[in-house]
Specification:
With about 170 residues, this protein is an alpha/beta fold. It has a single domain, classed as Aminopeptidase (3-Layer(aba) Sandwich), CATH 3.40.630.10. The protein is about 35% helix and about 15% strand. The longest helix has 17 residues. Its cofactor is Zn(2+). Belongs to the peptidase M14 family. This is CBPC6 carboxypeptidase.
Length: about 170
Amino acid sequence: PSSAAENLRPGAEQKVVFITARVHPGETPSSFVCQGIIDFLVSQHPTAKVLRDHLVFKIAPMLNPDGVYLGNYRCSLMGFDLNRHWANPSPWAHPTLHGVKQLIIEMYNNPKINLEFYIDIHAHSTMMNGFMYGNIFEDEERFQRQAVFPKLLCQNAEDFSYVSNIF
């Protein structure tokens, strides 16, 4: 008999992967990709089981439901490009961003939670392959650590282009 998942043991540190998608309503491929991730994670695939046993996945599959409902391309119900309001999201004008940012801050301040990875899924109007934007870190180890996932993805997904990544 298998024991409880490592990330569910009382007092265990939770290693979290946080995934968001569809901040821009017109980027419909981001919903497709996010649904594929969810379908895989809840599947019986052995890799999915290992991931579930060791990581906690928090997924917000649609950050701009009002804009999607209205058929907007980039903006929310109130006309905001939500992706430009992460620095100081309003609970009234940008409630989904505000909620997600508060959750990230709570995780950051909780010593029992380690946010291992954050993915914000978008789509691009002209790029025909997968790519990632990453952060610029002065610390070489942090920079190299963030480059591991795109390198692995490039080796395992023919539609992903490492040279299109921007850090």
